[in-house]
Amino acid sequence: MSDKPPKTISDVRVVIITGFSGSGKSTAIRALEDLGFFCIDNLPIPLLRQFLFLWEGAAGTVKQVAIGIDVRERMFLDQAVEVIAQLQSEGYSVEICFLESDEDVLLRRFQETRRTHPLGGSDISDGIARERALLRPLRERAQLVIETSHLNIHQLKQMIRTHFGSLARARLQILLMSFGFKFGIPRATDYLFDVRYLANPFFVEQLRPLTGLDESVLRYVMEQPPTVELIAHLQGLLRFVVQQTHLEGRGRLTISIGCTGGQHRSVAIVEELRGELAQIEEVAVSTLHRDITKRKP
After folding, report:
1. Vertex 58, ends 53 and 64: CA angle to 5°?
2. Helices and strands counted in the chain (H then E)
3. Could you tell me if 47 and 159 are in contact, meaning their C-beta atoms sit under 8 angstroms apart?
4. CA 163, CA 156: separation in Å to the nearest integer?
5. What is the pLDDT of residues 249-276, one digit of tens each?
6. With the CA atoms of 222, 226, 228 and 229 taken in that order, what torsion angle do they form, in degrees rounded to the nearest 10?
7. Which positions ≥6 away from 89 have C-beta within 8 Å?
8. Which residues pair with 283 in a beta bridge?
9. Domain ranges of the chain
10. Residue 158: count of CB within 10 angstroms of its CB
11. Are the C-beta atoms of 99 and 17 separated by less than 8 Å?
Protein backbone atom coordinates (compact mmCIF):
# COMPACT_ATOMS: atom_id res chain seq x y z
CA MET A 1 0.00 0.00 0.00
CA SER A 2 1.25 3.44 -0.90
CA ASP A 3 1.92 5.77 2.01
CA LYS A 4 0.78 8.78 -0.03
CA PRO A 5 -2.80 10.06 0.25
CA PRO A 6 -4.84 9.37 -2.88
CA LYS A 7 -5.56 12.26 -5.21
CA THR A 8 -9.34 11.97 -5.05
CA ILE A 9 -11.60 10.73 -2.25
CA SER A 10 -15.34 11.11 -2.63
CA ASP A 11 -17.02 8.82 -0.09
CA VAL A 12 -15.72 10.11 3.24
CA ARG A 13 -17.74 12.79 5.00
CA VAL A 14 -15.67 15.02 7.28
CA VAL A 15 -17.17 17.41 9.81
CA ILE A 16 -14.91 19.92 11.54
CA ILE A 17 -16.34 20.97 14.91
CA THR A 18 -14.78 24.18 16.18
CA GLY A 19 -15.67 27.41 17.94
CA PHE A 20 -15.22 29.33 21.16
CA SER A 21 -14.23 27.54 24.35
CA GLY A 22 -17.34 27.09 26.45
CA SER A 23 -19.76 27.25 23.51
CA GLY A 24 -20.63 23.54 23.47
CA LYS A 25 -18.05 21.77 21.31
CA SER A 26 -17.91 18.67 23.52
CA THR A 27 -21.71 18.41 23.45
CA ALA A 28 -21.72 18.65 19.65
CA ILE A 29 -19.08 15.95 19.32
CA ARG A 30 -21.05 13.60 21.61
CA ALA A 31 -24.15 14.20 19.48
CA LEU A 32 -22.21 13.22 16.34
CA GLU A 33 -20.96 10.08 18.09
CA ASP A 34 -24.61 9.17 18.70
CA LEU A 35 -25.16 9.48 14.93
CA GLY A 36 -22.37 6.99 14.19
CA PHE A 37 -19.56 9.42 13.41
CA PHE A 38 -16.03 8.41 14.35
CA CYS A 39 -14.93 11.37 16.47
CA ILE A 40 -11.51 12.67 17.45
CA ASP A 41 -11.11 15.77 19.57
CA ASN A 42 -8.02 17.96 19.21
CA LEU A 43 -6.22 16.03 16.48
CA PRO A 44 -3.14 18.06 15.40
CA ILE A 45 -4.14 19.73 12.16
CA PRO A 46 -1.02 18.71 10.18
CA LEU A 47 -1.99 15.06 10.78
CA LEU A 48 -5.55 15.42 9.51
CA ARG A 49 -4.86 14.59 5.87
CA GLN A 50 -2.77 11.53 6.69
CA PHE A 51 -5.33 10.34 9.24
CA LEU A 52 -8.12 10.47 6.64
CA PHE A 53 -6.00 8.51 4.19
CA LEU A 54 -5.43 5.78 6.79
CA TRP A 55 -9.08 5.89 7.85
CA GLU A 56 -10.29 5.46 4.27
CA GLY A 57 -8.22 2.31 3.95
CA ALA A 58 -9.23 0.71 7.24
CA ALA A 59 -12.67 1.96 8.25
CA GLY A 60 -14.83 -0.27 6.10
CA THR A 61 -18.44 0.96 6.01
CA VAL A 62 -17.99 3.86 8.45
CA LYS A 63 -17.54 6.87 6.22
CA GLN A 64 -18.36 9.70 8.62
CA VAL A 65 -15.62 11.39 10.62
CA ALA A 66 -15.83 14.35 12.99
CA ILE A 67 -12.72 16.24 14.08
CA GLY A 68 -12.68 18.71 16.96
CA ILE A 69 -10.40 21.73 16.50
CA ASP A 70 -9.88 24.50 19.04
CA VAL A 71 -7.28 26.96 20.30
CA ARG A 72 -5.43 24.27 22.24
CA GLU A 73 -3.82 23.61 18.84
CA ARG A 74 -2.75 27.24 18.47
CA MET A 75 0.73 26.37 17.16
CA PHE A 76 -1.00 24.66 14.19
CA LEU A 77 -4.18 26.74 13.97
CA ASP A 78 -2.94 28.99 11.17
CA GLN A 79 -2.63 25.89 8.96
CA ALA A 80 -6.27 24.81 9.39
CA VAL A 81 -7.80 26.73 6.48
CA GLU A 82 -5.08 25.58 4.07
CA VAL A 83 -5.40 21.93 5.14
CA ILE A 84 -9.19 21.97 4.81
CA ALA A 85 -9.01 23.61 1.37
CA GLN A 86 -6.55 20.94 0.24
CA LEU A 87 -8.84 18.15 1.43
CA GLN A 88 -11.77 19.67 -0.43
CA SER A 89 -9.71 19.93 -3.60
CA GLU A 90 -8.93 16.21 -3.30
CA GLY A 91 -12.63 15.34 -3.21
CA TYR A 92 -13.37 15.04 0.49
CA SER A 93 -16.72 16.34 1.66
CA VAL A 94 -15.64 18.72 4.43
CA GLU A 95 -18.07 20.86 6.42
CA ILE A 96 -17.09 23.29 9.16
CA CYS A 97 -19.51 23.67 12.06
CA PHE A 98 -18.68 26.70 14.21
CA LEU A 99 -20.14 27.19 17.69
CA GLU A 100 -20.23 30.64 19.26
CA SER A 101 -21.82 32.44 22.21
CA ASP A 102 -22.03 35.96 23.58
CA GLU A 103 -19.07 37.02 25.73
CA ASP A 104 -21.18 37.45 28.88
CA VAL A 105 -22.54 33.92 28.47
CA LEU A 106 -19.04 32.49 28.03
CA LEU A 107 -17.84 34.40 31.10
CA ARG A 108 -20.69 33.01 33.17
CA ARG A 109 -20.02 29.45 32.01
CA PHE A 110 -16.33 29.68 32.89
CA GLN A 111 -17.13 31.16 36.28
CA GLU A 112 -19.74 28.50 37.04
CA THR A 113 -17.35 25.66 36.18
CA ARG A 114 -14.33 27.45 37.72
CA ARG A 115 -12.31 26.65 34.62
CA THR A 116 -9.52 28.81 33.25
CA HIS A 117 -9.59 29.87 29.63
CA PRO A 118 -7.00 28.02 27.50
CA LEU A 119 -5.60 31.37 26.29
CA GLY A 120 -6.29 33.77 29.12
CA GLY A 121 -5.58 31.96 32.35
CA SER A 122 -7.39 33.90 35.08
CA ASP A 123 -8.20 36.76 32.67
CA ILE A 124 -11.09 35.09 30.86
CA SER A 125 -12.11 38.19 28.87
CA ASP A 126 -8.63 38.52 27.40
CA GLY A 127 -8.64 34.85 26.47
CA ILE A 128 -12.01 35.18 24.72
CA ALA A 129 -10.80 38.18 22.72
CA ARG A 130 -7.61 36.40 21.61
CA GLU A 131 -9.54 33.27 20.75
CA ARG A 132 -12.03 35.23 18.66
CA ALA A 133 -9.17 36.64 16.57
CA LEU A 134 -7.46 33.28 16.11
CA LEU A 135 -10.64 31.48 15.05
CA ARG A 136 -11.95 34.20 12.72
CA PRO A 137 -10.66 32.49 9.52
CA LEU A 138 -12.54 29.29 10.40
CA ARG A 139 -15.66 31.26 11.39
CA GLU A 140 -15.67 33.03 8.03
CA ARG A 141 -15.49 29.72 6.13
CA ALA A 142 -18.00 27.76 8.22
CA GLN A 143 -20.95 26.23 6.41
CA LEU A 144 -22.93 26.05 9.67
CA VAL A 145 -22.75 28.56 12.53
CA ILE A 146 -24.69 27.78 15.71
CA GLU A 147 -25.23 30.50 18.28
CA THR A 148 -25.52 28.64 21.60
CA SER A 149 -26.09 31.50 24.05
CA HIS A 150 -29.74 30.60 24.55
CA LEU A 151 -29.53 26.86 23.92
CA ASN A 152 -29.35 24.20 26.58
CA ILE A 153 -27.46 20.94 26.06
CA HIS A 154 -30.52 19.08 24.78
CA GLN A 155 -31.42 21.80 22.26
CA LEU A 156 -27.87 21.90 20.91
CA LYS A 157 -27.84 18.12 20.51
CA GLN A 158 -31.15 18.36 18.67
CA MET A 159 -29.76 20.90 16.21
CA ILE A 160 -26.66 18.79 15.56
CA ARG A 161 -28.68 15.63 15.05
CA THR A 162 -31.11 17.39 12.72
CA HIS A 163 -28.39 18.88 10.54
CA PHE A 164 -26.01 15.93 10.35
CA GLY A 165 -28.46 13.04 10.75
CA SER A 166 -30.78 11.41 8.27
CA LEU A 167 -32.50 14.71 7.45
CA ALA A 168 -29.23 15.98 6.03
CA ARG A 169 -29.88 13.96 2.88
CA ALA A 170 -32.61 16.41 1.92
CA ARG A 171 -31.73 19.05 -0.63
CA LEU A 172 -32.74 21.83 1.78
CA GLN A 173 -33.10 21.71 5.55
CA ILE A 174 -35.41 24.24 7.15
CA LEU A 175 -35.28 24.95 10.85
CA LEU A 176 -38.41 26.66 12.19
CA MET A 177 -37.61 28.23 15.56
CA SER A 178 -39.99 29.83 18.04
CA PHE A 179 -38.57 32.21 20.64
CA GLY A 180 -39.47 34.89 23.17
CA PHE A 181 -38.20 38.43 22.66
CA LYS A 182 -37.76 38.80 26.43
CA PHE A 183 -35.08 36.09 26.27
CA GLY A 184 -33.19 37.67 23.38
CA ILE A 185 -33.29 37.54 19.58
CA PRO A 186 -31.60 34.52 17.94
CA ARG A 187 -28.57 35.73 16.04
CA ALA A 188 -28.10 32.77 13.71
CA THR A 189 -31.27 33.16 11.65
CA ASP A 190 -32.06 33.94 8.03
CA TYR A 191 -35.59 35.32 8.43
CA LEU A 192 -37.23 36.67 11.59
CA PHE A 193 -40.91 37.47 12.07
CA ASP A 194 -42.48 39.28 15.03
CA VAL A 195 -45.99 38.05 15.96
CA ARG A 196 -46.46 40.00 19.19
CA TYR A 197 -49.39 41.89 17.67
CA LEU A 198 -51.55 38.74 17.68
CA ALA A 199 -54.01 38.12 20.51
CA ASN A 200 -52.06 36.67 23.44
CA PRO A 201 -53.32 33.46 25.12
CA PHE A 202 -51.27 34.46 28.18
CA PHE A 203 -54.13 36.77 29.17
CA VAL A 204 -56.68 33.94 29.05
CA GLU A 205 -56.53 32.32 32.48
CA GLN A 206 -57.19 28.74 31.39
CA LEU A 207 -54.65 28.99 28.56
CA ARG A 208 -51.84 30.72 30.44
CA PRO A 209 -50.19 27.55 31.85
CA LEU A 210 -50.37 25.81 28.46
CA THR A 211 -48.23 26.24 25.33
CA GLY A 212 -48.73 26.49 21.60
CA LEU A 213 -48.36 22.72 21.40
CA ASP A 214 -51.70 22.30 23.19
CA GLU A 215 -54.74 22.06 20.94
CA SER A 216 -56.73 24.69 22.83
CA VAL A 217 -53.95 27.28 22.50
CA LEU A 218 -53.32 26.41 18.86
CA ARG A 219 -57.01 26.78 18.08
CA TYR A 220 -57.23 30.11 19.97
CA VAL A 221 -54.30 31.58 18.02
CA MET A 222 -55.27 30.20 14.63
CA GLU A 223 -58.92 31.29 14.80
CA GLN A 224 -57.99 34.97 15.09
CA PRO A 225 -58.59 36.79 11.73
CA PRO A 226 -55.13 38.51 11.80
CA THR A 227 -53.52 35.09 12.25
CA VAL A 228 -55.38 33.65 9.26
CA GLU A 229 -54.21 36.55 7.11
CA LEU A 230 -50.65 36.30 8.44
CA ILE A 231 -50.39 32.58 7.68
CA ALA A 232 -51.63 33.17 4.13
CA HIS A 233 -48.94 35.81 3.57
CA LEU A 234 -46.19 33.72 5.18
CA GLN A 235 -47.03 30.60 3.20
CA GLY A 236 -46.67 32.42 -0.10
CA LEU A 237 -43.56 34.30 0.98
CA LEU A 238 -41.78 31.24 2.39
CA ARG A 239 -42.56 29.10 -0.65
CA PHE A 240 -40.93 31.81 -2.77
CA VAL A 241 -37.95 31.99 -0.37
CA VAL A 242 -37.50 28.21 -0.50
CA GLN A 243 -37.58 28.28 -4.30
CA GLN A 244 -34.93 30.99 -4.45
CA THR A 245 -32.80 29.25 -1.81
CA HIS A 246 -32.88 26.09 -3.93
CA LEU A 247 -31.69 28.06 -6.95
CA GLU A 248 -28.87 29.59 -4.91
CA GLY A 249 -27.71 26.10 -3.91
CA ARG A 250 -27.83 26.64 -0.17
CA GLY A 251 -28.51 23.65 2.04
CA ARG A 252 -29.97 25.20 5.17
CA LEU A 253 -32.51 27.87 6.06
CA THR A 254 -33.47 29.10 9.53
CA ILE A 255 -36.77 30.90 10.07
CA SER A 256 -37.48 32.38 13.50
CA ILE A 257 -40.91 33.37 14.83
CA GLY A 258 -40.97 35.50 17.96
CA CYS A 259 -43.61 36.50 20.49
CA THR A 260 -43.19 37.97 23.98
CA GLY A 261 -42.38 34.85 26.00
CA GLY A 262 -41.97 32.12 23.40
CA GLN A 263 -44.63 29.81 24.87
CA HIS A 264 -47.88 30.50 23.00
CA ARG A 265 -48.20 32.49 19.75
CA SER A 266 -44.78 31.84 18.20
CA VAL A 267 -45.03 28.12 19.00
CA ALA A 268 -48.47 27.86 17.40
CA ILE A 269 -47.34 29.69 14.25
CA VAL A 270 -44.27 27.46 13.90
CA GLU A 271 -46.42 24.33 14.21
CA GLU A 272 -48.83 25.64 11.58
CA LEU A 273 -46.03 26.52 9.14
CA ARG A 274 -44.29 23.18 9.60
CA GLY A 275 -47.10 21.28 7.91
CA GLU A 276 -47.13 23.66 4.96
CA LEU A 277 -43.37 23.67 4.35
CA ALA A 278 -43.07 19.90 4.81
CA GLN A 279 -45.13 19.43 1.64
CA ILE A 280 -42.45 21.05 -0.52
CA GLU A 281 -40.37 18.56 -2.49
CA GLU A 282 -36.77 17.92 -1.34
CA VAL A 283 -37.26 19.88 1.87
CA ALA A 284 -36.78 18.54 5.41
CA VAL A 285 -38.38 20.61 8.14
CA SER A 286 -37.50 20.50 11.83
CA THR A 287 -38.65 22.68 14.71
CA LEU A 288 -37.02 24.11 17.79
CA HIS A 289 -39.11 25.80 20.48
CA ARG A 290 -36.26 27.60 22.16
CA ASP A 291 -38.04 29.21 25.09
CA ILE A 292 -41.12 27.06 25.54
CA THR A 293 -40.16 25.92 29.06
CA LYS A 294 -38.86 29.26 30.30
CA ARG A 295 -40.68 31.61 32.62
CA LYS A 296 -39.57 35.18 33.31
CA PRO A 297 -41.54 38.02 34.95
Report:
1. 70
2. 9, 9
3. no
4. 11
5. 677 889 999 999 999 999 999 999 998 8
6. -160
7. none
8. 172
9. 13-168, 171-289
10. 18
11. yes
